[in-house]
Amino acid sequence: MARALITWGGWDGHQPDVVAALIAGWLREAGMEVQVTDSLTCFDDPAALAELSLIVPVWTMSEIGKEQAEHAAAAVAAGVGLAGCHGGMCDAFRTSVTWQFMTGAQWVAHPGDDGVRYAVRMVSDDALVKDIGDFEVETEQYYLHVDPAVKVHAVCDFPVVEGPHSPNGPVAMPVVYTKLWGQGRVYYNALGHQANVIDHGPAAELMKRGLLWAAR
Fold first, then answer.
1. Residue 16 and residue 83: Cα distance in Å, rounded?
2. Are 148 and 156 in contact (CB under 8 A)?
3. DSSP code for 61
4. How confident is the model over 164-180, as pLDDT tens digits?
5. Number of structural domains, the chain?
6. Quick check: 129 and 153 in contact, CB under 8 A?
7. CA dist., res. 167 & res. 177, Å (int)
C-alpha cells in the first residue's frame, strides 16, 4: 500500500491541523496509508522517508533543521512525491534555501491581505487541470518568487489590489505548478489560506489531482 506522511505546524492562522486532516481524508479515500504528525522529527530518519510515496508539508514559517531539510530533499530526489498548498509548503522555513530550491517558490506578499476576489485561470492542457475551467475565489492572493523551471498550470492576474508593485504592469502569477526534483514530482497550489478555500469545488479538485499526481 502506498504510504503518505503529512506533517503540520507553524502559524495557527492557516489552520494547519484542519488542512492536514482534510488532505489525510482525501488520501485515505484514494487508498493510501497516511501518517499525520505535528512534529518535524519525522524528517530525522532518511531511511523511513525513503519508504514513502508522498510527503505533504502543512507548515507556515517556523524553522527546519539543516539535516531535516536535506533528508527531505534527498527523499524527494530519490522518487518520493512532494505536494502542498498556500503557506503550508511555500511559506515554510524561510531561512532554508534547500527547502525553497526543492519546492519551487517562496511567498513574498499578499496585497490586500485576506478577502481579495480574483480569478484563477487554467493555462495548460495537462490532465491536472483538464475540464476544471476558470473560477473565482475570495481569499489571499499570493505574490510569489518562482523557480523558472516550474511548469505552470493555472495563474491569477496582478494587480487586483493597487500597491507598489502596480507600476510594473500586469503580471500573471502562478497559482498551480509542478516541477521535478531528481526522480520526484513536486506539486504546489497557492490556494488554501484556510481549509474552507480548498475543501470544495474546483480548488478541491485541483488539490486532489495534484496530491495523487505527485505520489509515486
1. 14
2. no
3. B
4. 999 999 999 999 999 99
5. 1
6. yes
7. 26
Cα 89 to Cα 100: distance, rounded to the nearest angstrom:
9
- Pull the grid cell for residue 206: 485541483
Q: Which parts of the chain sit beneath pLDDT 50?
A: none
pTM over 0.70? The answer is yes
Element (H, E) at 85: strand 81-85
Q: Are 192 and 88 in contact (CB under 8 A)?
A: yes
- Name the residue range of residue 70's domain: 3-214
pLDDT of residue 83: 99
Sign of CA dihedral 186, 191, 193, 199: negative
Q: How many CB atoms lie within 10 A of CB 57?
A: 29
What whole-number distance in Å separates Cα of residue 215 and Cα of residue 205?
16
The position carrying cell 517562496 is 106
Contact 149, 100 (CB under 8 A): no
The reported pLDDT for the residue numbered 139 is: 98
Cβ atoms of residues 122 and 154 within 8 Å: yes
- Residues 178 and 145 sit within 8 Å (Cβ to Cβ): no
Contact assessment for residue 150 and residue 105, using Cβ atoms and an 8 Å cutoff: yes
> In this structure, what CATH number is given to the domain that contains residue 121?
3.40.50.880
- Strand-pair category, 105-109 with 33-37: unpaired
Q: What angle do CA 29, 155, 100 make, to 5 degrees?
A: 75
